[in-house]
Specification:
- The complex is a heterodimer of chains A (588) and B (182).
- Chain A has 588 residues and is an alpha/beta fold.
- Chain A has a 6-stranded parallel beta sheet with strand order 3-2-4-5-7-6.
- In chain A, helix 1 packs parallel to helix 7 and helix 3 (52-66) packs parallel to helix 5 (84-93).
- Chain B is of the alpha+beta class.
- Chain B is built from 4 helices and 9 strands; from the N terminus they run E-H-E-E-H-E-E-H-E-E-H-E-E.
- In chain B, the strands form 2 sheets. In chain B, strands 5, 6, 7, 8 and 9 form a 5-stranded antiparallel beta sheet that branches.
- The radius of gyration of chain B is 20 Å and the shape is globular.
- The termini of chain B are far apart.
- Classes of the chains: A alpha/beta (588), B alpha+beta (182).
- The interface between A and B is medium-sized, with 33 and 29 residues.
């Protein structure tokens, strides 16, 4: 007879078999039996966070930078509710997470027991799937299934809720089934005809554009390689969403920069005027499309996505290819080489006018800003950070707001999995714990959280985690004392009524760093900025960098909501002439 | 929305709504109905009626029939989103006008009144396979099976015969002929 294992042991046996090496968690009454077993499984390292939301975001950072699922372990009640924000964040940005939560013993479920909550009920809308395990014999298969659901198809978070009595009960351990049955949820549903049609559209187009998103990153590093191959083989321009940055080199001439609300002038105009839009792994989010009725009116649209429900959700497309980006791109390249081996040559002529037009848009230099000798411009700070770290293969996380957009605009990414930001949910407080997770996955790499002072205060307690595990993350705060993006909207749309967007009693971040026993650095002038950044980079400990920037700088260019792509506001100079007034204002 | 100031755009487009009957085959496990219904409420889809019961005891499969309204785009989303749920096996979608599909709802009417009225009520139901489930001197319980609008009509018409209580199910659906939905 094979050995009997307790539920708690089975949790770790499953993790071993799923090649989990790190879990992020916080103990509590309903998971104590699991924590009791932790010491017996040496291959699994636990990272103790300071708040369960931090565990969730750290697991996200871990997952996004490594391509492996992030694993979270939390207790019942508040442990589970605290992780809800991170689960929702992961659901919106398609990040694979497996969350194990403790639950009160089965006989107490429904009695309003201490630290009881309806965890599976609360997390049902923010997970791909969740399970309440009521029978010890289902535990192993459920956990294995959880990993499968989280990582296959369009990735996402899952949760397994385990009552405390189940953690104590004993049964035999079942290994994961080798064969992956997907219950019809597999996602390569395209055929050669669609690929042929795509190539036909590509060869006919004179104003094409690739519009790529996080799906390319999620499909693995190979997808990024194939994307580069395809973009070079066609000579087409390419733009990327916030989540897709890094799948194509940010400094390449074919790259038009990010598109969308704070995207470049050339990317948005090219999207508006193109005759063929090839969407690869993006989802026509409302921050991307602007006014949907006037979105790219003259183009044929192709949508490559692993999730059938993404097709025709926001924008009707002419050709849908449902499949994994990697597989679709590989088929496309194969067919292209066979059928149109001289594609680039024959096509150059056709797209030359298009490229000229793009160059004209480019010459507007929409990311330019007015520099200053006295105060540090936030854009300048990012540019200097980029220049001083671009050869270091840095991993960048962000919080949410102006700093996030400036980072996306001015930091150029050349590799996938180097850029971790909360896009769909827009979670302030994401970046610091995410940096913790990234550094856990890549101990020797440079990890920087480009932060705002308001966002970072939402999860600042995780500095304590970074110090405990010697994770030398760099928190680069663009400190303008305002919730900058809120202030910007209030300035542009709410008659400069800066309602509650100024933080009057900020902590001294240098002293705060010292209180956490890490290093605080402050830069006040453009003159000292470089030296201070270098000092930060040379510090092999966690650093909080307080970069005092211009308080009222706005993030441009910008498409006000309710406007199409070709009606952007450029910089401060352009603002006077295109002031949002009357009807436009009401739509934003 | 003339004076609204929001971070989002607004749509003033009015599109035509169609009525669809969505049939979903699911694993009969804890919380599965909440998943399906939660998907509808969470994404703002309508549910006009709902009928659910286990149909295969051995495989533990339940069949959920949902009557919904929406634009073609919304109905398409409903199907695609349902298919993504882990316990969902298959999803069928029928238009209410579809002649190849039978739709039925059941209703129970309680009539209280004189003999005359009781007989009148039974007679009025004649077209809809009335079954007299319970009879006393003063009351009848009549079961009919019919379409939604027919039951709506009967619920009104029977008032004059002393209708005191109505209980009705959601619609269930089945294709005509030998074919089954795969």
């Amino acid at each position: 007879m094979s050995k009997l294992y307790s539920g708690a042991e089975i949790v770790f046996k499953c993790m071993e078999d799923q090649n989990v090496d790190h879990i992020f968690g916080y103990p509590g009454g309903a998971v104590l039996p699991i924590y009791d077993e932790l010491q017996n499984f040496k291959s699994i390292k636990h990272v103790l966070v300071r708040h369960e939301q931090g565990a969730g975001h750290a697991a996200e950072g871990y997952a996004r930078s490594s391509g492996k699922p992030g694993v979270i372990l939390v207790t019942s009640g508040p442990g589970a509710t605290n992780v809800v924000t991170a689960l929702t964040d992961a659901y919106m940005d398609s990040i694979p997470l497996v969350c194990i939560s403790g639950q009160v013993p089965t006989h107490l479920i429904g009695t309003d027991a201490f630290q009881e909550c309806d965890t599976t009920g609360i997390t049902r809308p923010c997970t791909k799937h969740n399970w309440l395990v009521k029978d010890i014999n289902d535990l192993a298969s459920t956990i294995h299934k959880a990993f499968e659901v989280a990582t296959t198809g369009r990735p996402g978070p899952v949760l397994v809720d385990i009552p405390k009595d189940i953690q104590f009960q004993k049964t035999k351990y079942k290994k994961p089934k080798k064969e992956k049955k997907l219950n019809g949820k597999s996602h390569n549903h395209f055929n050669q005809n669609s690929i042929d049609e795509l190539i036909e559209l590509m060869s006919k187009s004179s104003k094409p554009i690739f519009y790529t998103g996080g799906g390319v990153i999620n499909s693995g590093p190979r997808a990024s390689e194939l994307l580069r191959e395809l973009v070079y083989a066609t000579g087409f321009p390419i733009t990327s969403t916030l989540q897709g940055l890094g799948s194509f080199p940010g400094d390449d001439n074919q790259f038009l920069g990010m598109l969308g609300m704070h995207g470049t002038y050339e990317a948005n105009n090219a999207m508006h005027d193109c005759d063929l839009m090839i969407n690869i792994g993006a989802r026509f989010d409302d921050r991307i499309t602007g006014k949907i009725d006037e979105f790219s009116p003259k183009s044929k649209k192709v949508h490559i996505d692993i999730d059938p429900s993404s097709i025709n959700k926001n924008v009707k497309v002419d050709l849908a290819i449902v499949g994994d980006v990697k597989t679709v791109l590989s088929s496309t390249l194969k067919s292209l080489k066979q059928k149109k081996s001289k594609f680039l040559k024959s096509n150059k002529q056709k797209t030359s006018n298009w490229w000229e037009k793009i160059q004209r848009w480019r010459s507007v230099r929409s990311l330019d800003y007015i520099g200053s000798e006295e105060t540090i411009k936030p854009q300048h700070a990012i540019e200097r950070l980029y220049e001083l770290t671009k050869d270091k293969d840095a991993y960048i996380t962000t919080e949410v707001g102006q700093h996030q957009m400036w980072a996306a605009q001015h930091y150029k990414f050349n590799k996938p999995n180097r850029w971790m930001t909360s896009g769909g949910l827009g979670t302030m407080g994401y970046g610091l714990p995410a940096a913790v997770g990234v550094q856990v996955a890549h101990p020797k790499k440079l990890v920087i959280d480009i932060a705002g002072e308001a966002s970072v205060l939402m999860t600042i307690q995780e500095m304590s985690t970074a110090v405990q595990y010697n994770l030398p993350i760099k928190i680069f705060i663009l400190n303008n004392q305002y919730m900058g993006m809120v202030r910007q909207w209030q300035e542009l749309l709410h008659d400069k009524n800066y309602s509650e967007s100024y933080t009057a009693a900020l902590p001294d971040f240098v002293k705060l760093a010292e209180a956490y026993n890490c290093v605080g650095i402050r830069a006040k002038t453009p003159e000292e900025l470089d030296d201070k950044i270098i000092e930060m980079l040379n510090t092999d400990r966690p650093v909080i960098f307080d970069c005092m920037v211009d308080k009222v700088e706005n993030c441009f260019p910008m498409i006000p909501s309710g406007k199409p792509h070709n009606q952007m506001i450029l910089g401060p100079k352009d603002q006077e002439s295109k002031k949002i007034t009357g009807k436009g204002k009401s739509l934003v | 929305m003339p004076n609204s100031k929001s971070a989002y755009s607004f749509s003033n487009k009015k599109e035509k709504f169609d009525t669809h009957i969505i049939v979903v085959w699911v694993d009969n496990e804890a919380g599965v109905l909440a998943r399906v219904v939660g998907l509808f409420s969470g994404r703002g889809y309508n549910i006009e009626s709902l009928a659910v019961a286990q149909v295969d005891e051995k495989l533990k499969i339940s069949r959920i029939t949902i009557v919904t309204t929406g634009t073609p785009q919304v109905v398409n989303q409903i199907k695609l989103q349902l298919r993504k749920l882990v316990p969902v096996h298959k999803v069928a979608d029928f238009k209410r006008e579809d002649k190849a599909v039978i739709f039925k709802e059941m209703a129970l009417f309680k009539i209280v009144g004189s003999n005359n009225k009781l007989e009148g009520a039974l007679k009025a139901c004649k077209k809809y396979n009335p079954v007299l489930l319970d009879k006393t001197k003063k009351s009848n319980v009549i079961q009919i099976t019919a379409l939604r609008r027919e039951i709506d009509k009967m619920s009104k018409d029977l008032k004059k015969f002393g209708l005191v209580s109505v209980s009705r199910t959601g619609a269930v659906a089945m294709t005509r002929g030998a074919d089954i939905f795969k």
